[in-house]
Amino acid sequence: MNENEALEVVLGILRPFARNEQQMAAANHATRLWQDLQINSARFIDILLAFEDRLGVAIDEEQAEDIATVGDVVQLVLRFAAENPDAVERARREP
Amino acid sequence: MSAPPRVVVTGLGFLCPGAHGLPELEALLRGERAPLRRWESLRAAGFACQVGGLPPEVELEAYLRTDQRYATNSHMRYAVIAGLDCWRDAGLEVPAWDAPLVDWESGLVLGTGSGGMETLTTLDYEAKLKSGQVRRLGGAVIEQTMMSAASAKLAGLLGLGGRITTLSSACTSGTEAIAEAYFQLRAGRARRMLAGGTEGATEATAPYVWAGFDAMRVLARGWNDEPARASRPLSASASGFVPSAGAGLLLLETLDSARARGARIYAELCGAHVNSGGQRQGGSITAPNPHGVVRCVRSALRDAAIAPAEIDLVNGHFTATAFDVAEVQSWREALELAPEQMPRLQATKAYLGHGLGASGAWEAIASLLQLQRGFVHRALNCEDLHPALAPFARSLGSECEANPPRVAVKAGFGFGDVNACVVFRAWSEHE
């Protein structure tokens, strides 16, 4: 999985949760989950579960605390993909 | 000290079985057929009563953006649909989701019987707990199951900054919410209050929400093949109520506020009272103490400064259980009128079923609609009037009348022996 593919997966998961649709439509690596997309803390919990369902790997609490931007999530996905290439590739093909 | 402000109704929003909005409600109430149906999900669950009422599908895109639809259950969605309809009906604007202003002068009191209990099944709550998967419940349980879920959702969409609350008093809830909002306005604590009731259930979740009522044998029996005739208040063949779901909202406003913005006025809410029979003197968790009912009605009329002879329309609680006859007797005692002098007694549940926490608001709106549109709906499904009610036959008209009522009294009673009563008067600038 390359960086563009990972970005696509991340944006697909975030989209239904973003309050700010304009920011969501223009989202890139620098877009901030809280300030720009206006995702609240309750939705963030469900976003973590959605990643778990899509990638077959759980994001633990410590990793979750470091997430601030779309780019942070993309880096996490790339790391998962490197560690569990089969699971992530399967999830990417069968969303 | 200045007199308490007068309170008027300036907006209505309505969603019930067979009707979304006032024109559909009017057509329904002028007709002769209840929009209640038999549901496969109730049959499959083994219900004795497989008849119920669910509202029509509504395009949610007109009410909620994608992110706003997330984490909503039906009692929240119904409240949002009726609430935003009501706000717009009153000539007010629904603000953009990111508009910075707060409306500090407006509040919201919503009633509900069961709240968001359906979410416990749609999220598979029990299975997740039993398999040690609490974390898989996610972040959206509480905002759907907290008792204030629906009022919180609706108030957030409108940016309301007054008192926002949900109250729950079983089948009294919708009527009590209207009374409570009226008390707030009379006390000068707000200029506008949204008030009403909501009750959740979809075809998939209705069995969960209604099962307890079927199991306690208070739902209509023997009418599964004739669902439109199943809700039979005041009849000899009444065998229990037909459950239904939806929401109804009213915008109550001080007369000064309504005049200042040139609002259209449906009617004046001129009196209200809420009490309990103490679960004594014949009252219990499931039965009303008739003395409590009588006191509640009399107190509301005293608050309204309305004499019994001025009342044109009584919209009762009448659920099609054994208590209908006792309720008629309580009305007679409260109004101190001979049976042949009684005003029209009306059972709107014959059309809409029993919307539990929503029904008080539905029936208040039905009463207001009849005041405004100048008609009185027929007594449906009681062609076999209960024999004990024969002296009242004149008050239980079998035809839809074009006699415009001017004063309507709406009362609701609920499990827990709780009562609420509100009094509406057709609007006149001169009074």
CATH class of chain A: Mainly Alpha
**Rg for CA atoms of chain B:** 20 Å
Shape of chain B: globular
CATH architecture heading of the largest domain in chain B: 3-Layer(aba) Sandwich
**General shape of chain A:** globular
Report helical residue fraction of chain A: 55-70%
Q: Biggest interface: chains and residue counts?
A: A-B, 14 and 13 residues
Chain-averaged pLDDT of chain B = 96
Can you give a write-up of this model?
The complex is a heterodimer of chains A (95) and B (431). With 95 residues, chain A is mostly helical. Chain A has one domain (3-93): Orthogonal Bundle (Non-ribosomal Peptide Synthetase Peptidyl Carrier Protein, Chain A), CATH 1.10.1200.10. Chain A has helices at residues 3-14, 21-25, 41-55, 61-65, 70-83, 85-93. Chain A is globular, with a radius of gyration of 12 Å. By secondary structure, chain B is α/β, with parallel strands linked by helices. Chain B folds into two domains: 7-260, Peroxisomal Thiolase, Chain A, domain 1, CATH 3.40.47; 272-426, Peroxisomal Thiolase, Chain A, domain 1 (3-Layer(aba) Sandwich), CATH 3.40.47.10. Chain B has 15 helices and 13 strands. Chain B has helices spanning 22-30, 40-44, 66-69, 74-89, 119-122, 125-130, 142-145, 149-158, 173-186, 206-215, 255-260, 290-304, 323-335, 349-352, 359-373, and strands spanning 7-16, 19-20, 37-38, 51-52, 106-111, 164-167, 192-199, 246-254, 267-276, 313-315, 344-346, 407-414, 418-426. In chain B, strands 1, 2, 5, 6, 7, 8, 9, 10, 11, 12 and 13 form an eleven-stranded mixed sheet that branches. A two-stranded antiparallel ribbon of chain B has the order 3-4. The model of chain B has no long low-confidence stretch (mean pLDDT 96). The interface between A and B is medium-sized, with 14 and 13 residues.
